[in-house]
Amino acid sequence: MRKVLFFLILGLGISSFAQNQPAKTEQDSTTQQKRISPFSSGYYRLGFFDADLKYIIKYNNYEGLRLGFGGVTNERLSEKYKIGGYIARGFIDEKIKFSIGGSARLNKETNTWFNAYYIDDLRELGSSTFLTDARVYSLFEPRLVNVTQFYKHRTWQSNIWHEFSKKIISEFRLSKSHIKQTENYFYFDNDNLYNSYEITELTVSARFTSQANSITTEDGQIEYFDKIPKISAQITQGLRGIFDGDFNYTKLGLKLDYLLKQKNLSATHFLLEGQVAFGEVPLTHLYHAYPNSPTKGSILKRFSVAGRRTFETMYFGEFFSDKLSTLQVKHSFARFNFSNWLRPELVLITRHALGSLNNKEKHIGPVFNTLDHFYSESGLEINKLLFGFGLSFAYRYGYYSLPDFDDNVSFKFTFYLKV
Question: With CB atoms 3.0 to 4.6 Å apart as the test, which of 130, 187, 214, 396 could cross-link to 408 if both were Cys?
């Protein structure tokens, strides 16, 4: 409950701060008008340095409260070169995490950059993201509040960021990581038992975004209609023997993200994602389905923060897969106008997952299941009740429903800040 109160206070503080941006001066008024809000871009300009808002404050069960500061230099220092990084400290583990590196622009017309960074930090067990998704910023990352399983990594990485066009962005990355466990996990492969290991990866990622048609409704609001989904694709190759890499594997990912908006201000969001891994892949680099239910007894003890694309009734560490597909559908209705300050939004949600895992016996330590049958949950959100806060309800049913009714129910609060 202390975590919930902490983030309620944090959310209120963010809401207040978002409404009080620095005053414009006559000299920079034109620049300020063109500049995107820091709560949309994720950066707050401090002279020649853009502070990255996502590093300021976080919370998770391993580090506790995590405070930090980071960012990157901007064009006021140089239009061709950037220096960036961050430093952070958790109050429970009492460890310093940091990153340092820089970027050089290779081509202005195609926005091509070469980047090189060193990172010493934590990463969630079984997490997998598309490189191009790193450009999608979220000020408030609610799922991090509940994450319990991490591993340590020290990573050297270099990458090239390139825009083939306004519709197609891409990233090519080569990385070398030293992995250490925070849990009692061992990976058995080729007659060896690994608790720490070296990972060398080559990754190619791309995202295609279609152009959108727009219309202006009678009430003056602009509505967008995408012709086709946003498409993200990614290939990762683990390289054994290159820079001392211990494992050889291939990972493939494909994501379709489609938002259909209607003239009546309702909208339906479809998110279909598929991932598969072949070869010698330790649990740290496999897949989970973004679980977001704390492993606690009663419904109220599990009351926390609902995520954006998470399975709210799936418990942390419950499932891992080397082949995973998920489908999420959200339908939001036009906001109700009860008063000027009370305009809640009703959202209906259904989520489904299917996966499998070969050679489960190679993963020694954590106890978990596989998703060989359909996992299903459905529910609703009542968002934006007060200061961006709302409520979320979800129910787990089907093959993986649990014997006790309470264990299948999720009740949480939501937070959607719009500035």
Answer: 396
